[in-house]
Design brief:
Chain lengths: 179, 827
């Protein structure tokens, strides 16, 4: 066992871990941060994405001992002062269905927007390609990330709503009713 | 997006806008976007033990010796069980759909006793203090196998003298299912139709094996309490699971509660009674301790049921003018090694959809269910209907080529006209409503059809290395599963009704209990919208309860695009009963005749007396107090309803794909995708659009990316997300979607179902588009998925490119060339 000290979502934890323990297992099983989930065993799906000292990592590819002395932010800590704009935008734009990929998708999207505050559709698609979603077909995730980007740049009204000039918000289909 | 108009923002005396049709943001999201979810694997119970499963590394073998003594000695291991330990009590996993009276079902033990029939089959289960301890001990199990011949290829499996999967059976054929319209009286003689035809086109299509690949791995927790058991499972079907698990284990049904907490997707893949669910129950019963099993992704891909895997032989007959005269379909359907919950029924369900939207006078369908040494197939999004739609939409294009006709003109000539609904097809189904022409016109406009056709012509003339094609899919599907009597006539082991209950709480809040169990679809939101309109109560005042057999006692769960059509209708029917009961109380309290009461906006008022009235939420409080109510009735306005549809519903639509094919590299890229779907009444356009998007992603993935591949020894070589290519955002295009609305006449909502539409319609549109791009170069077919290698081989070597191609896909190739790339690089 190896002692580690990690700050997770603002609180300090000192624990003994097996050296082989993955960060995601430490977070889920010892810290109780079950909002972060495991979706695969090959680091393809990104469901376990958290921030390690502010950068997105797949917590299944980091050993808990590597996080010693670090600051970890999970989906449970990202909106401690209310919802993060990216969380709000996923809700507003229907960027989730079953929600299993959502914590990782949101954490990856926040990281993307730190690097690129105004991504195009294609840049969002490439930026989140390390995260798999089986439900949405990604289109509303792309809308959500761009909507959040606009709000974070100051183009929104603070409720996840942004003007159509800023981003295509036509999430609902045009419904033509026949007689 | 139209801004949501909250009721709170409206003046109180104005009637609220209807909830049905509103793009309500989902109630479910609050917990899902903050990580405050209850996935089964999140659950921790005092004293809980963890399971790990020792699985067969060989596809077909006799188990000659099992030595688990080293496992028992491993640190933290509490117990280890082999098949022999449960041989007397495990029974057989259920198959609920004997599609023919003589169907052969070899039975399916949850844990193998003396023989394994596919890689990944359970041979021992380890119980330990921690999951890591259980997993560590797996490699200490020593199992000796005596190899048996491995049966993988369906066409060889049904040949004379083939090796047998189950050597106590006579052959590898489980059943031979036939639907003949001539014999059934729904059509004319098929052989005669083909004998008389000017043109006959025959094709062989391969529906590759797919994996549902829900994002949340399966997980089960069982807690024993005396002789009662509670099972939490990541399942689509807690109600069906309870019945089946009780029948398999002998635990009385009333002693077993099944809960589906938050469930992370299913797509048919969690429409199953899993070996591990039964094993958790058996072990919890033995040990008297709570146990948990959660699979790894590799276990999931290797052992959760797969989908599709059919070889389709399709013949179409027509006259020279392009009028279709007959359709003949012969299927080989890979069952895998065993028959699971609805394994044999999947191809049989598709049998009724091969005629598609066309007016065939004659039709014959035959299917052989074939055993192989692979994991069983079962429901995957669409379940039989994507296969049927692919076959008919592909062969219509082939017929158009043969006749020298425009593929859209051929479709128009043969499809059911809007004025002809309701229309009984040659398969005996009564299509309810629709307008294929209008949907097609809208889709053509959405795509920008004329401009793309002009560009296609320019590229052809200039011999552009990147050619352009446009593919059609004008589809319909049968949804709203299902009328119980029809299921009975098809020998299905259950009904197709759904149940709902509405509880009016004293404060006027409303609890809606539904037997339809969501796993991402948004039932809590949509059902709230239904009830808000029916009862005239605020959306926020409605709470939807589901997925726990102790709360929702009756239900048949979620699959087959049935939830809104059948389950939502039960909710509306229950609300009608609440109103009927409340009417009696209102009449009594208002001192009026029931006949003189109007009910609107949640309020009973005496006709002709504006300003008077009593709200249904006030009545809920009055009847809770029960101080003053009519003689002869019970003091409750709660109600329940069971809705059994009289017919299926038939969503339809036109899907158009424009595809670029690089003739030098074989790389294909969707240039534009447009579709117009008619799913009947739309309760929540946001949710409907999301369902279409997700379905498109999965249907396109079948066409371009996904295939479960076994090697010659029966090992799954696509056993991780490195190899099984669930598309990432960068692998999919933007979708242009639209709707027409023709309400379904068969249910009170008018909904037709939307969960499977995109997945059913899109696959043939994509393949037809790729072929349209390169057909002038001599390519007549390309085997799915359309990997660059297959496309390149089809262009250069002829054939469908599938014979020598590996599973290397577009997406993998993109990592080493230019264009969009696959997963893995972002973080």
């Amino acid at each position: 066992m190896t002692p580690i000290t990690v700050r997770v979502d603002g609180a300090a934890y000192t624990d003994d871990v097996e050296p082989r323990t993955l960060l995601v297992h430490y977070l889920r099983e010892q810290v109780g941060k079950v909002g972060t989930v495991v979706g695969c065993d090959t680091s393809n799906c990104g469901a376990c994405t958290v921030h390690l000292d502010g950068e997105a990592v797949k917590s299944c590819t980091v050993l808990a001992v590597q996080a010693d002395g670090c600051e970890v932010t999970t989906i449970e800590g990202v909106g401690q002062d209310g919802l993060h704009p990216v969380q709000k935008a996923f809700h507003e734009m229907h960027g989730l269905q079953c929600g299993y990929c959502t914590p990782g998708m949101i954490m990856a999207s926040i990281d993307l927007l730190q690097d690129n505050p105004d991504p195009s559709d294609d840049e969002v698609r490439e930026g989140i390609e390390g995260n798999l979603c089986r439900c949405t077909g990604y289109q509303n995730i792309v809308r959500a990330v761009r909507s959040a980007a606009a709000e974070m740049r100051g183009g929104g009204d603070g409720n996840g709503h942004v003007s159509p000039a800023v981003v295509d918000t036509a999430a609902a289909p045009h419904v033509a009713v026949q007689a | 997006m139209t801004a949501v108009e909250d009721r709170a923002g409206l003046p109180s005396d104005e009637p609220a806008a209807p909830e049905i049709g509103k793009a309500r943001r989902r109630k479910e999201d609050a917990r899902l976007i903050t990580g405050k979810t209850t996935w089964t694997d999140n659950m921790v119970l005092p004293g809980m033990l963890h399971l790990a499963v020792v699985r067969s590394p060989v596809a077909h073998a006799r188990i000659t010796h099992v030595d688990v003594s080293a496992v028992r000695e491993a640190p933290g291991v509490i117990a280890v069980y082999t098949g022999q330990d449960f041989a007397e009590e495990q029974g057989s996993l259920p198959c609920a759909w004997p599609v023919t009276p003589d169907m052969v079902n070899p039975g399916h033990p949850s844990i193998a006793v003396d023989q394994v029939n596919h890689v990944g089959e359970a041979v021992a289960v380890i119980v330990a203090r921690t999951k890591a301890a259980a997993q560590d001990a797996v490699e200490l199990a020593d199992v000796d196998y005596e190899p048996l011949p491995v049966v993988l290829d369906m066409e060889r499996a049904v040949a004379e003298g083939a090796d047998l999967v189950h050597d106590h059976l006579e052959s590898n054929t489980s059943y031979h299912f036939v639907f003949d319209a001539g014999e059934m009286g729904t059509g004319s003689d098929t052989d005669q139709a083909f004998a008389d035809a000017d043109v006959v086109v025959s094709r062989r299509f391969v529906q590759q094996r797919l994996i549902p690949a829900f994002m949340e791995p399966r997980s089960v927790v069982v807690q024993p309490q005396g002789d009662n058991y509670t099972m939490w499972s990541a399942t689509q079907i807690p109600h069906i699971l309870r019945v089946m698990a009780a029948m398999v284990t002998g635990i009385p049904e009333h002693k077993l509660r099944v809960v589906a907490p938050d469930v992370g997707g299913g797509f048919g893949g969690k429409l199953q009674v899993n070996p591990e669910e039964i094993l958790c129950l058996l072990i919890a019963r033995r040990l008297g301790k709570p146990v948990k099993w959660t699979e790894t992704r590799s276990e999931s891909l290797m052992t959760a049921h797969h989908g599709r895997d059919q070889i389709q032989f399709v013949d179409v007959a027509a006259d020279r003018e392009g009028n279709v005269k007959g359709l003949r379909v012969r299927l080989l359907a890979d069952m895998g090694a065993y028959l699971r919950l609805i394994t044999p029924g999947v191809p049989a369900l598709g049998a009724f959809m091969y005629p598609g939207i066309y007016k065939f006078p004659a039709y014959r369908f035959e299917c052989d269910g074939v055993f192989t040494n692979k994991v069983p197939t079962d429901a995957y999004r669409g379940a039989g209907r994507p296969e049927a739609t692919f076959a008919i939409e592909r062969i219509m294009d082939e017929l158009a080529v043969e006749l020298g006709m425009d593929p859209l003109e051929l479709r128009r000539r043969n499809w059911i006209d809007a004025a002809e609904f309701p229309f009984t097809t040659v398969a005996g189904l009564a299509y309810d409503s629709g307008d294929y022409e209008t949907a097609t016109q809208q889709a053509l406009e959405l795509l920008g059809y004329d401009e793309l056709r002009a560009e296609q012509q320019r590229r052809r003339e200039s011999n552009d290395p990147v050619q352009l094609g446009i593919g059609f899919s004008t589809f319909t599907e049968m949804c709203g599963l299902a009328p119980s009597r029809v299921l009975g006539s098809l020998s299905f082991g259950a009904g197709g009704w759904e149940h709902a209950a509405i509880r009016m709480l004293p404060t006027g809040k409303v609890e809606v209990v539904t037997g339809s169990t969501p796993h991402g679809q948004g039932h809590e939101t949509a059902w709230s919208q239904l009830v808000a309109d029916s009862l005239g109560v605020p959306f926020e005042d409605v709470e939807v309860l589901h997925g726990d057999t102790a709360i929702s006692s009756r239900g048949l769960d979620t699959y087959g695009s049935r939830s809104l059509v059948v389950g939502g209708s039960a909710v509306v029917k229950a609300a009608d009963k609440v109103i009927a009961k409340a009417r009696k109380i209102a009449a009594h309290l208002l001192e009026a005749s029931e006949d003189d009461l109007d009910f609107a906006g949640g309020k009973f008022s005496v006709r002709g007396t504006p300003g008077t009235g009593l709200g249904i939420q006030e009545i809920a409080l009055a009847i809770f107090a029960a101080h003053d109510y009519p003689e002869g009735i019970e003091p409750s306005i709660d109600a329940e309803a069971t809705f059994d549809p009289e017919n299926f519903s038939f969503p339809h639509g036109t899907h158009l794909c424009a595809m670029e094919v690089d003739t030098e590299t074989g790389f294909v890229k969707i240039r534009k995708y447009a579709c117009v779907d008619d799913v009947g009444t739309i309760v929540n356009p946001l949710i409907v659009e999301g369902q279409v998007h997700g379905g498109l992603a999965q249907g396109i993935a079948q066409a371009l990316y996904e295939e479960a591949v076994y090697d010659d020894d029966g090992n799954l070589t696509t056993g991780t997300f490195v190899d099984y290519l669930v598309p990432a955002a960068s692998d999919l295009p933007h979708f242009d979607t639209g709707n027409t609305v023709h309400a379904a006449p068969g249910n009170p909502i008018g909904a037709k179902g939307v969960g499977e539409a995109g997945c059913i319609a899109s696959t043939p549109a994509v393949v037809n588009a790729a072929l349209d791009a390169v057909r002038h170069l001599g390519v007549t077919d390309i085997r799915m998925p359309l990997t660059p290698e297959r496309v390149w081989r089809a262009l250069h070597d002829g054939g469908d490119g599938g014979e020598r191609a590996t599973a290397r896909t577009n997406a993998q190739a993109a990592d080493s060339t230019e264009g969009p790339s696959m997963t893995g690089g972002a973080l």
